[in-house]
Amino acid sequence: MENRLKEEAGKLLKEGKVDYIVGYGKGTVNLRTSPLITNKEEDLEGLVINPFIANNLSRYPVELKGRVGIVVKGCDSRSLTSLMQDKKVKREDLIIFGVPCEGVVDLKKLAGQIGAEIDRVTDAEKEGENLTLQVDGSKKTIPFRDVIFDKCYGCEHPTPLEYDMLLGSEVAPNLDIEKSLERIKELEGMDAQERWNYWKEQFSKCIRCYGCRNVCPACFCERCFVDVNMPQWVATYATWQDNLTFQLIRTLHVAGRCSDCGECERACPVGIPLRSLQRKMVEEVKDLFGHEVGIDKDAPPVFSHYEATDPDEFMK
Amino acid sequence: MEESNWEPKVIGFLCHWCSYAGADLSGSARLEYPHNIRIIRIPCSGRVDPMFILRALQNGVDGVLVSGCHPGDCHYQSGNFHARRKFAVINRLLKYVGIEPERVQFSWVAASEGPKMAQVIGEFVEGVRKVGPNRLFKDEKKDGE
Q: Could B51 and A249 be called an inter-chain contact, meaning their C-beta atoms sit closer than 8 Å?
């Protein structure tokens, strides 16, 4: 898979069919991968595809000028399609390498499972249903599905929907919706006051680093409303009130665009369960308007059109 | 403020072409509606940004009422249809994070519906009165400010 990608990407650059290749490279810490963006053929040797390719790369083509060859997983491909709907990227400017995905390893979960820091793991290999690790020189085997991101349990499209070249064979969804919605159901079981207190506590931790916004492929405003100072909608310093308002508005801005790629939560340095907001809105948008994110690249964005029959039983 | 003499303070974002005129009509018809509402005129219900609602609540009002033209009656053809989609998700999200549903209400009121406007405002203010003062964004320490 990796070799085919390197070969095809090399060809694209050589023939001048793309200006950039956007893929995954080795990270600075063992196991971790980081985005590899290049226009030089010799850098392509560094491309990797493994169960640790967590980043959603789909926001890079928005910022890169020119044609881009990009590597996407199932969820990323839907983000990319959503960006096409919003006319932020053009399909003809992209050459998409699809990676059928059986789930991506959540390094936090993995660290918990092996009871050690990730940098003590020197090697990891997915073998069938298991992940075989070398920890401090000894071999360890753990079930793969125990360490993947929560979002992956609810993934209905593990194989990218939009691609020019599929690396590997299609993967059938392996759904465990209940597990992926566990936290949301837990929250819905609380009463309003408890829920509010829960979010209040979570957003007291927020340091307003804007990591969630910066990593989000659906957050493509050139000037974010938090950076606007006439009028200043939210304070620029961190108070839980403004942090919460900021995130609620962000949630509404990305509703109908969010493919539940989970990058916001992964990027959050203080561990706020942001997916519980975003995923909830994915469900709501589907329930209200029957809109699934990133399925049809020619469909209009959900909030730029309407139906006369849209639900309005909440209007009094 | 003492709980006993607390009066709800609510904000109404009313569309210039219908609900605002409806409120006007209820006034000229000498109908009474609670004085707890502070009305802000907007050009269309489509103008309402979710930020308006959240900022109002954050700044301490007890309720927010948004009212526009009935579907199909929009002065700008489709402003209220677009607004309706937005309101639907705002409504669900606010409920989900734990804001009492009585605090935020969306309505359709036409320019000719003076009595309905008075009734909508009346019922909304009563609903807000039942859930009590808005302490959502208050800090425990700074309470009573």
A: yes
| pLDDT tier for residue A30 given thresholds of 50, 70 and 90 | confident
B139 part of a folded domain: no
B105·A316 Cβ contact <8 A: yes
Could A241 and B137 be called an inter-chain contact, meaning their C-beta atoms sit closer than 8 Å?
A: yes
> pLDDT tens digits for A209-229?
999 999 999 999 999 999 999
List, in sequence order, every residue forming a beta bridge with A165; answer none if it has no partner.
A97
CA-to-CA distance for B108 and B19, rounded, in angstroms? 8
Question: For residue B97, what are the domain limits?
Answer: 10-131
Q: Is residue B16 part of a domain?
A: yes
> CATH no. for residue B79?
3.40.50
Whether chain B has a CB inside 8 Å of the CB on A306: the answer is: yes
Q: Look up the ipTM and state it.
A: 0.93
The full set of domains in chain A, from first to last, is 2-106+148-304 (no CATH), 107-147 (3.10.450)
* 3-state helix/strand/coil string of chain B: CCCCCCCCCEEEEEECCCHHHHHHHHHHCCCCCCCCEEEEEECCHHHCCHHHHHHHHHCCCCEEEEEECCCCCCCCCCHHHHHHHHHHHHHHHHHHHCCCHHHEEEEECCCCCHHHHHHHHHHHHHHHHHHCCCCCCCCCCCCCC
